[in-house]
Amino acid sequence: MSDKERISLAQGEGGLASSQLVESLFLQAFDNEHLYQREDQARLELADFIRQGDRLAFTTDSYVVDPIEFPGGDIGCLAVNGTINDLAVGGAIPRYLSCALILEEGLERALLERIVASMASAAREANVSIVTGDTKVVPRGKADRVFINTAGVGVIPQGVELAARRCEPGDVLIASGYLGDHGAAVLAARGDLALEMDVCSDSRPLHGLVQEMLKVSPDIHAIRDATRGGVATVLNEFAQMSQTGIVLQEGSLPVRPQVRGFCEILGLEPWYLANEGMLVAAVSASAADEVLSSMRAHPYGCDAQVIGQVVAELPGKVQLQSGFGGRRLLEPLTGEQLPRIC
Amino acid sequence: MSDKERISLAQGEGGLASSQLVESLFLQAFDNEHLYQREDQARLELADFIRQGDRLAFTTDSYVVDPIEFPGGDIGCLAVNGTINDLAVGGAIPRYLSCALILEEGLERALLERIVASMASAAREANVSIVTGDTKVVPRGKADRVFINTAGVGVIPQGVELAARRCEPGDVLIASGYLGDHGAAVLAARGDLALEMDVCSDSRPLHGLVQEMLKVSPDIHAIRDATRGGVATVLNEFAQMSQTGIVLQEGSLPVRPQVRGFCEILGLEPWYLANEGMLVAAVSASAADEVLSSMRAHPYGCDAQVIGQVVAELPGKVQLQSGFGGRRLLEPLTGEQLPRIC
User: Fold this and answer.
1) Which of A104, A269, B121, B227 has its CA 20 to 30 Å from the CA of residue A243?
2) CATH second-level architecture of B164-329?
3) Which residues of B touch A238 (CB under 8 A)?
4) SS3 state of residue B93
5) CA of A50, closest CA in chain B: separation in Å?
6) For residue A335, what is the nearest residue in chain B, using CA coordinates?
7) Which residue ranges run through the membrane (chains A, B) (predicted)?
8) Pick the CATH number of A3-156 from 3.30.470.20, 1.10.760.10, 3.40.50.720, 3.30.1330.10
9) Contact by Cβ (8 Å): A81, A114
10) Cα–Cα distance, B303 to B259 (Å, whole number)
11) Could you read off the pLDDT of B92-131 as tens digits, one per residue?
């Protein structure tokens, strides 16, 4: 393989080689007027934001997933969808992303091109533009191939007030799909486990689904997407922030049979496995049927179902009830079982 | 040293240990209402932006500087000031930053605390809030101690239109301070060079200086801060984007004697060395005196001086004229001489 086909330190130094990388790769793939200006910052009309709502949503995540490519996705679509979802669960309409890459010297150019194409494709699907960016290259052995940071800005429509602290006793908890698909797909894709499994990451953007939900009812109190730490960790956040209790019916938790089997072999529990395109909503009981129907009518919510209730007892705690009458508390994720899952 | 005093993988997994790290370190250091909400995104009133201008500025940079701590600064203040400056040179008033850390397992907690304190202190000086963040931990050997990404948003006041393409023949080029201080300080701080030098990084926020300049004249066409690739690379961007030529007088370029000596020993040219708190402005000739005076009245512009002119000849090129009548073109930075300078 020739030198041209691997990333060099010079491509991260801000000079000619950096500029050529930006022009030959990022400008073409992300293709928008803001990038073509080649200024140090994108300039976005505030009047355009004001038409959609009254608050700017702002968030960031870095992505260090291993392996970089896995069934159902790669670090590129993950970095776009993950940040979009952190905007979406606040009720925001995502608008613009930044893209900052830390590359290890020697990275295959072809791999970088696939990742960038995947980012561009995910951004197009979600109708967001990647308008500003940065690339650093560190010497071999100082990073693991590629790390991506995206920050995102979006607009929260007037009147939308989703917040974990708003969960109330009586609220119904709805999950938009199967638990743990992303975590299982990534863990299975790691060569060291020597396990094969037919499941794909659920990496996908959730803002369309959230907007549909908000259309049918103002009585949605909180939404979070279950990423690191899984549904169990999100629900612990709901319980702690609102000082309510949460009761889950184990039989109602949607887990694919192959993910359940995978978890049994590894001694994991699927409610701690990450998703990257699945949300949990706390909805007032009177609105639950209507919200559930709206979710099932959306392609990314077709497997939605009720998984539990918010209660006044057990403030700050999450209880799992098994079909056999057993009850136990689900703590937030502890320990070190799942590094580099996103 | 006990295990408690080093960063563990669990602290990057989104569960209990992550949450404890956020509460014990970031919330206390960055201390603002947006972080205390503990939602996945900060929510910022658009009405508050609109009062300051008509465009949102949005930018990002990752910081991978080696060493992490160096005379005059560290990766923390760099990550805050660098992103502030990418907003400032567009004429924006910086408002909010994100902070995303990639930590190597085993990082000393005390070092992380110093870095975070340095970020908090830099943010306070610049009157910006760090309102959203993310922490990932990768296994030992998969990153080099700590990488930081910050993204920033700010507001561009109505009527401000700074752009490299706006440079015009006749414009005067003004540098706000000495060339290459940051690059020299960081290179000298690397143990492998075995060189000692009495110079500090110039890491500092430039938005106050830029706002003072904009107050005295609307005839400032472009501003950039000279970071990676130095003044030579910034001026090549001015020349290329505006298709003008740029002529510099070598004798007018402000370089500290110790930085000049350091460059001679290493075979470097100071106009390729990075700054992290020094800008170059292209100003119409009629406004140059007034703008220069306003810069010299500001603590971060007190060493400002005219370094060259924009000309119609040599479109897209930068020419350096020596005191002895010699002329040569300065290309943008090429090669791999200065990795991990920021």
Assistant:
1) A269
2) Alpha-Beta Complex (3.90)
3) none
4) strand
5) 7
6) B10
7) none
8) 3.30.1330.10
9) no
10) 16
11) 999 999 999 999 999 999 999 999 999 999 999 999 999 9
